[in-house]
Amino acid sequence: MPGSVRPEEILPDGDDHTVLDGLTVRKGTVAAFVANVKALDGVEEGSAEWKMLADRIRELVPGVRAVGLFDVLTPKSPQLRNIIDEASTHGGTAAP
After folding, report:
1. Which of 15, 29, 93, 14 is nearest to 63 (CA)?
2. 61 — pLDDT class (breaks 50, 70, 90)
């Protein structure tokens, strides 16, 4: 079993991305995902702002999945789970 991991072991100082499972993941991907999910809460579903936030979340899903976030955390919102499922179905792009 591996020991503990420090942030700089994942992404050394000066690097702004890493490659996980063949996918380039930028520094800040998880933080951007969380910020957009928080912003989505309280926005009227179907509004232009909601659609923009949902699209951004879908774009971030592949990177967040590569980091392994969904291996240790499960989204509690059915709305968010639907957005994540759509991203998985459509390869991280906005749903048609």
Report:
1. 29
2. very high
